[in-house]
Specification:
Layout (H helix, E strand, L loop, with lengths): L1 E4 L5 H5 L1 H6 L9 E13 L14 E16 L11 H9 L2 E2 L2
Antiparallel strand pairs: 1-2, 2-3, 3-4
């Protein structure tokens, strides 16, 4: 699965303490594929996970084998799951760099 960064800020996201602690606006990439991941499972959170990123009532995706791309791959995203252009998939899978 590829991770795509949207073209706009998410005001609710920036309101999250976890996001504010980890990122600054200058570190954000927009409108590009930025990582390759494996989706292991997903679950709906009723009371919430212990993880600081958990949001009550939301679906939580559990990801593993996160591979950040050394360079973002420009791509036009869409709402919901979508299939990127084949060239973007080839470029993303050819250039991974493992994260710890």
């Amino acid at each position: 699965m590829l991770i795509h960064a949207g073209t706009k800020d998410d005001a609710d996201g920036w309101a999250s303490p976890g996001v504010r602690e980890e990122l600054t606006v200058h570190e954000i990439t927009y409108g590009a594929i930025i990582a390759v991941v494996e989706r292991v499972t997903c679950h709906r959170c009723v009371s919430c996970c212990a993880d600081r990123w958990g949001e009550p009532g939301a679906w939580h995706w559990v990801l593993e084998d996160v591979t950040a791309l050394p360079e973002p791959i420009s791509a036009t995203g869409r709402l919901r799951l979508w299939r990127p252009e084949p060239e973007a998939v080839v470029a993303a899978l050819a250039a991974p760099q493992r994260l710890g």
